[in-house]
Design goal:
The complex is a heterodimer of chains A (62) and B (307). By secondary structure, chain A is mainly α. Chain A contains three helices and no strands. Chain B is of the alpha/beta class. In chain B, the strands form four sheets. An eight-stranded parallel barrel of chain B has the order 3-4-7-8-9-10-15-16, surrounded by six helices. The longest helix of chain B is centred in the C-terminal third of the chain and has 19 residues. Chain B starts with 5 loop residues before the first strand and ends in a 16-residue tail after the last helix. The chains are: A mainly alpha (62), B alpha/beta (307).
Chain lengths: 62, 307
């Protein structure tokens, strides 16, 4: 569930979202939000992005 | 013993379980020993001219679902009749042919060619296709849908016609009513839900066509609602049967759609995992009927919609 949330979170940013909301997953694990933030920070570093905003809409559809 | 036979218009099905459009083609011939319990089969959508389909990848898995964008790949109506139809006949169950098109004339010409063939028992109109005149899918434009189905109805007056509806619309009861007004014998729903998945490393959509349609377990509750909506708003009072489909993986899933108002149930994505699913679902249906003290499927159709 956590992995799922993390992957989806980054996927939403790629598609054009500026923020990502977490709802139902909190029923399964109320700490989902914190886990997502940590995972997203690490993913951004790996991708060489300083900020989440750098990822927004960076979907390549050429 | 509870009976599973049902009738939809002139169609007589030995079980209410239909293999939906777009899963298998000539593979049915190889899978024949596994397909006990199958009541009917819908051939993959055919168009007037051959289509090569969309770029690869055409299918990917998602959490609890399958995302596809095939692009109506098919050999065209002539190729279908000569190459694919003989393979479907080995199933010895009613054959329903799905027809797609980009304008009314294409649908009408395809349906006329199919109506000449005795071995075809019904035509399903795939309405999840963009109308070149408007860019809107026929299924999300009730007026265009009515014009299309009326023209086909006049062109093939004796053919059993089924309208397959798209869920990509605010209220699915509106296209359902338009199809019923235009004279179909049944409606089937739901087609896939528009969806997308993105590869994080390449930052590109996973599907060759970028966007596609979602099927599988994830969509089942959407299908249950939309069957219920069509049944209560339109089909019950017009006595038009519904072929319900969307994420059916078990007897329980099929029963749920029937209780919501479906008279028959389509199975699609689950066939990829287990082609022998029809027998299991049929046994689940029969056991449920017997446990509930019912004799036949029609005794439980729409039971969840009673007041």
């Amino acid at each position: 569930m956590i992995l799922w949330g993390l992957l989806r979170g980054r996927e939403f940013l790629r598609a054009g979202a500026t923020a990502v909301a977490v709802g139902t997953a909190n029923f399964v694990n109320p700490e989902t939000g914190r886990t997502l933030v940590e995972g997203l920070g690490e993913a951004l570093r790996r991708m060489g992005c300083a900020r989440a905003l750098d990822l927004v809409g960076r979907l390549e559809v050429a | 013993m509870a009976r599973l036979e049902i009738a939809i218009g002139k169609l007589r099905l030995r079980t209410p379980l239909i293999a939906v459009s777009g899963i298998f083609g000539i593979e049915y011939r190889q899978l024949l020993p596994e397909l006990r319990g199958i009541g009917g089969v819908v051939a993959k959508s055919v168009t007037l001219r051959p289509r090569t389909g969309n770029p690869e990848p055409k299918i990917i898995e998602t959490p609890a679902g399958l995302l596809n964008s095939i692009g109506l790949q098919n050999p065209g109506i002539k190729g279908f009749l000569s190459e694919q139809l003989p393979n479907l006949r080995v199933l010895e169950v009613p054959i329903i042919v799905s027809v797609a098109g980009s304008n009314i004339a294409e649908y009408v010409r395809c349906c006329r060619m199919l109506a000449d063939r005795d071995e075809i028992d019904a035509i399903e109109l795939n309405l999840s296709c963009p109308n070149v005149e408007t860019g809107l899918d026929f299924g999300s434009d009730p007026k265009a849908l009515y014009r299309l189905v009326s023209r086909v109805r006049k062109a093939v007056p004796h053919q059993t016609l089924i309208a397959k509806l798209t869920p990509n619309i605010t209220d699915i009861a509106l296209p359902a009513q338009a199809a019923v007004d235009a004279g179909v014998q049944a409606i089937s729903l739901i087609n896939t839900l528009r969806a997308m998945a993105i590869d994080l490393q390449t930052a590109r959509p996973k599907l060759g066509n970028k966007v596609g349609g979602l099927s599988g377990r994830a969509v089942h509750p959407v299908a249950v609602y939309m069957v219920y909506r069509c049944y209560t708003a339109c089909c019950r009072k017009n006595d038009i049967p519904i072929i319900g489909m969307g994420g059916v993986c078990s007897g329980e899933d099929a029963i749920e759609l029937i209780l919501a108002g479906a008279s028959a149930v389509g199975i699609g994505t689950a066939m990829f995992r287990d082609p022998a699913i029809f027998q299991k679902v049929a046994e689940g249906l029969r056991k449920y009927l017997e446990d509930q003290g019912k004799d036949k499927i029609s005794d439980i159709v729409g039971l969840a919609a009673r007041s």
